[in-house]
């Protein structure tokens, strides 16, 4: 059975033009590591859309059209206790002067993990795809817009996911959905959404261009509409393969 049951997905706007990198350094080197004291935290990943990335977006609507960064905290059991401790940890860190920088939030949600996939060429199981080094992600946030969301979810699983995994540069994909299975803080509740993270092991801009016609098929039926669809790069560079 997969260890990850849900995820905190934190979405924020772009950094201000005069940012000197202090916020990202603090978050990567201080704040994000502290989350590993939470009992169910499995993995934490941060991504950013800077440079040419905003222009490469496939879709965007409303506040989420301006996503500049995303953090995913992957959560396993005990999910409820981890949720509760997560909501308290920031307050405790602030009390000891460890929360000096706050950024405006576009959205914080804790959806449940619904489906997980790995491309055969990735040579890892679908359960560990996010832990495998990758260059970035294609992030999709979608909301129900029609009556046949169940049919759309079935199509995603039977038709769309296999086609997605066949595209060069795609290592795998995880899909999350809104849930009321766990009691959640009012701050992170909202209308139903589906969040898909497509993990990319080639240049995210190039892979997004390849994926665009396929991604646009997700909205053809009208069952859902996109709130955001675009690439973000990994914050930690890696050199698993030579250029």
Explain what you see.
With 243 residues, the protein is an alpha+beta fold. The protein has a single domain (4-234), classed as 2-Layer Sandwich (Alpha-Beta Plaits), CATH 3.30.70. Helices cover 25% and strands 30% of the residues. The chain has 4 helices and 10 strands. Strands 1, 2, 3, 4, 5, 6, 7, 8, 9 and 10 form a 10-stranded antiparallel β-sheet that branches. The chain is globular. The relative contact order is 0.22. The mean pLDDT is 92.
User: What is the CA-based Rg, rounded?
Assistant: 17 Å
| Shape category | globular
What is the oligomeric state here? single chain
Task: Please count the beta strands (DSSP E, at least 2 residues each).
Answer: 10
Order of helices and strands: EHEEEHEEEHEEHE
Mean pLDDT: 92
Spatial gap, N to C terminus: 36 Å
Helical fraction equals 10-25%
Low-confidence stretches: none
Q: What is the count of distinct domains?
A: 1
The CATH architecture designation is 2-Layer Sandwich
- Classify the beta-strand content into a percent band: 25-35%
Category from helices, strands and their pairing: alpha+beta
How would a textbook summarize the main sheet?
A: 10 strands, antiparallel
Task: Predict the CATH topology.
Answer: Alpha-Beta Plaits
Total number of helices:
4
Identify the CATH class.
Alpha Beta
Indicate the topology.
Blueprint: E1 4-12, H1 22-34, E2 41-48, E3 59-60, E4 69-76, H2 79-95, E5 107-109, E6 112-118, E7 136-144, H3 149-165, E8 170-177, E9 194-200, H4 204-216, E10 224-234
Antiparallel strand pairs: 1-4, 1-5, 2-4, 2-10, 3-10, 6-8, 7-9, 7-10, 8-9
């Amino acid at each position: 059975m997969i260890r990850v049951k849900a995820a905190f997905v934190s979405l924020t706007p772009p950094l201000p033009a005069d940012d000197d990198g202090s916020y990202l350094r603090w978050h990567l080197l201080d704040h994000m590591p502290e989350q590993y004291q939470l009992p169910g935290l499995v993995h934490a990943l941060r991504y950013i859309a800077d440079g040419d990335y905003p222009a490469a977006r496939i879709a965007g609507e409303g506040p989420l059209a301006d996503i500049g960064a995303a953090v995913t905290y992957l959560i396993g059991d005990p999910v409820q206790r981890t949720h509760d401790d997560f909501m308290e940890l920031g307050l405790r860190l602030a009390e000891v002067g460890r929360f000096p920088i706050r950024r405006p939030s576009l959205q914080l949600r804790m959806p449940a993990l619904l489906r997980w996939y790995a491309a055969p060429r990735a040579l890892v199981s679908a359960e560990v795809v996010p832990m495998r080094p990758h260059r970035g992600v294609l992030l999709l946030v979608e909301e129900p817009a029609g009556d046949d969301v169940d049919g759309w979810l079935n199509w995603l699983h039977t038709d769309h996911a296999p086609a997605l995994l066949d595209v060069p540069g795609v290592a795998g994909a995880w899909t999350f959905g809104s849930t009321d299975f766990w009691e959640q803080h009012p701050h992170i509740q909202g209308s139903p959404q589906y969040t898909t993270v497509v993990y990319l092991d080639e240049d995210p801009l190039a892979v997004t261009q390849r994926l665009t016609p396929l991604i646009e098929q997700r909205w053809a039926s009208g069952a859902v509409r996109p709130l955001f669809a675009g690439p973000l790069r990994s914050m930690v560079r890696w050199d698993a393969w030579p250029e």
